[in-house]
Amino acid sequence: MTHIESRFGNRNYYLNREQINQLNFKSTENEKPKEKRRDIYAEMPLRALGYSNELGEAIRPLSPMLANLSWLPAIGYISADIADKYRQDEFSVKDPSKSRASKQLVTQLLASVFLPTVAVKAGQGLTNNVSAFGKTKLSLNNREKISEIVINSMKQGEHKDFLDENGKVNKEEYKKSLSQKFNEITKHKNTHKKHNPISAFVGFIKKPFSPNQSNIDKYAGDVVDRLIDTRQQLLDGEKPNNISNKKFQKYLKATENVAQSEKQSVVFDMVRKAEKNKMFKNKIIKSLGGLAALSIMAKPIDKFVETKIMEPIVGPHIDNISAMHKKQQQAKQETQSVNG
């Protein structure tokens, strides 16, 4: 090693080329960047578990019990994903972090719970409203409500007030009484909307899909014809078209040598189930609408949550809170060490 000493007494050392090579500097140019670990929770098939509750909501019209049970896989998936993000970072480094866990919790609540559920409900609602342009001019929900009102009316025995001299229900008179009931329900709803701004606004949006009284009366008349005809055929020992041979044979065996009142009870139960089966088809259509909306919106929702909510808004906010918390902890420790 050589050195040069200035006239002011400072000594600067210089390394020759051989000595520089002996230092063996490591070049950073050839260093490979760390590879991010594979996130299995963001890939299929595990990602599909996050939508199990939405699938349940889509089939809720068909089976409320299955819809409730469908939340169990979703909750398990979300919990496992949050625990995974808490334990290690994106490079597989074991580093427990509440901040990462908080971010993933918000991400999952938005991308696997809230927004997909909104998409399913929107798909069901759109399917329901579009159906109002069909033959009946009534939405699927309106058809179901009308059928339920007629069934409840028969359950309460109101149809028996219109028996003719032969003991058969006078369908036309019964229809008139139901028409008055539907009119009263419509008036009550309209009055409620006038006093409730939110209901009035929703009603204004749904106005193009709202049924008129003539369509309601016509569909209710069709329901009455179907139910009363089925009831009378069963009482006469004839098989209705909407009852299977197997069920009809069971009915004949169950009503053999029984009192007329008990027979009428069995008949009503069969009539009610037959109408429920018909409404079941409408529920399948709504469920398919919800599933279609979920399949279309699943990926856009994930991207929207990541790029428009988490990265620019929620993520930085959580990081700031985490940084503030760390500063407070450090200040607290310093204070304790000084006092100690």
Annotation keywords:
single chain; 340 residues; mainly alpha; 2 domains; two-stranded antiparallel sheet; 12 helices; 2% strand; elongated
Overall description:
The structure is a single chain. This protein is an all-alpha fold and 340 residues long. It has two domains: 40-128 and 294-335; 135-290, no CATH class. It contains twelve helices and two strands. The protein has helices at residues 17-22, 46-49, 52-58, 64-69, 71-87, 98-130, 140-155, 171-195, 197-206, 213-235, 245-254, 260-339; strands at 2-5, 11-14. The protein has a two-stranded antiparallel ribbon with strand order 1-2. Strand 1 (2-5) and strand 2 (11-14) form a beta hairpin. Residues 1-9 have low confidence and may be disordered.
Summarize the structure.
By secondary structure, this protein is mainly alpha-helical.
Tally of separate domains: 2
- Strand proportion: under 5%
Q: SS-based structural class?
A: mainly alpha
Main β-sheet description? 2 strands, antiparallel
Mean pLDDT: 85
Coarse morphology:
elongated
Low-confidence stretches: 1-9
Determine the fraction of residues in helical runs and give it as a percent range.
55-70%
Alpha plus pi helix count: 12
Describe the SSE topology:
Elements: E1 2-5, E2 11-14, H1 17-22, H2 46-49, H3 52-58, H4 64-69, H5 71-87, H6 98-130, H7 140-155, H8 171-195, H9 197-206, H10 213-235, H11 245-254, H12 260-339
Antiparallel strand pairs: 1-2
Helix pairs in contact: 3-5, 3-6, 3-12, 5-6, 6-12, 7-10, 7-12, 8-9, 8-10, 10-12
